[in-house]
Amino acid sequence: MTATPSRRHFLRDDDLTSAEQDQVLTLAQEYAENRRGHRKALAGKSIAVLFEKPSLRTRVSFEVGISELGAHAVLIDATNTHFGRGETMSDAAKVLSRYVDAIVIRTFEDTRIEELAAAATVPVVNALTNHFHPCQVLADLQTVRQRLGHTEGRTLTYVGDAANNMAHSYLLGGAVAGMHVRIAGPFGFTPDREILAQAAVVAARTGGSVTEFTEAKDAVSGADVIATDTWTSMGHEGDGLDRITPFLPYQINAALLAHADPDAIVLHCLPAHRGEEITDEVMDGAASAVFDQAENRLHAQKALLTFLMEHA
Ligand code: CP
Ligand code: NVA
């Protein structure tokens, strides 16, 4: 846990307890149902939103969400900062903490956001790192609640690059939400052992579970939620690994989906590489919840920021 009593950060999915996650998701749904009704929640605040990697959804949903809460978003493209010229995350945190009330950041190594959070005196939010994408999984859990009523006891299967940020965030965030998280990816693309073990400890507390599978169809069998993500995450484009052939058995297509519960929903954080990790037929089919999921980024992040400000 990275949280401290005086300064709440959200760097990983398990930085919220189950009760806190429930509180955030409940508020997220209130925001979804009354989008313009909370215009003053963060009135007068300023929030820095800093990107060291590309983004469409995260950038727009944070900027719009912060505006809807009555606060001001300062969008920062890292290519126009001094990070490339040697300014440390620690120094930047100390400076930004003098100006703004929270810092949202998308970056590479998790050590970068950890260094930022350690020196910041305002809440720091992970908008995607190499290991985690916790804001996305909050939105995904909200989508599960909307479509299936609750998360507790539901089975969520993630197939594809099981070594990436979405895989790790599903493990931790799903465990916090009391879900049975199943994960399947090709040899060499399995989750970080430590995060897997940490998720299992959380799941033991919440009544959920985490299980690794080799075969995609075994992982999907009877599941309530089927999720995937790109086979080539940002920063891995030139890593020299074959990121197509070993992944083909993990594609979400109609044949794989047929193994899931008949009422199962399909999630993808987007952007999708249609024809690779997911087919058009499934993306655009009746089980797909991907555009609700994208919308929920807005509501879930507004709720998260409100919660963190109240507990800062
Ligand atoms: N899902 C997601 O984080 O999308 P962006 O990279 O476009 O922000
Ligand atoms: N795993 C993907 C998620 C994109 C939102 C990446 O890191 O590129």
UniProtKB/TrEMBL annotation:
Sequence ranges assigned to domain Aspartate/ornithine carbamoyltransferase carbamoyl-P binding in this UniProt record: 8-146
Keywords: Cytoplasm, Transferase
Residues engaged in binding carbamoyl phosphate: R106, H133, P134, C135, Q136, C269, L270, R297
Keyword set includes Transferase: yes
Major localization class: cytoplasm
Domain of life: Bacteria
SUPFAM superfamilies in the cross-refs: Aspartate/ornithine carbamoyltransferase (SSF53671)
Entry annotated with the keyword Transferase: yes
Domain Aspartate/ornithine carbamoyltransferase Asp/Orn-binding: 153-307
Coiled-coil annotated residue ranges, if any: none
Binding-site residues for L-ornithine, renumbered to this chain: N165, D229, S233, M234
Pathway the protein acts in: Amino-acid biosynthesis; L-arginine biosynthesis; L-arginine from L-ornithine and carbamoyl phosphate: step 1/3
Catalytic activity: carbamoyl phosphate + L-ornithine = L-citrulline + phosphate + H(+)
Pfam families linked: OTCace, OTCace_N
Entries under PANTHER family matching the protein: ORNITHINE CARBAMOYLTRANSFERASE, MITOCHONDRIAL (PTHR45753), ORNITHINE TRANSCARBAMYLASE, MITOCHONDRIAL (PTHR45753:SF3)
Family label: Belongs to the aspartate/ornithine carbamoyltransferase superfamily. OTCase family.
Protein name: Ornithine carbamoyltransferase
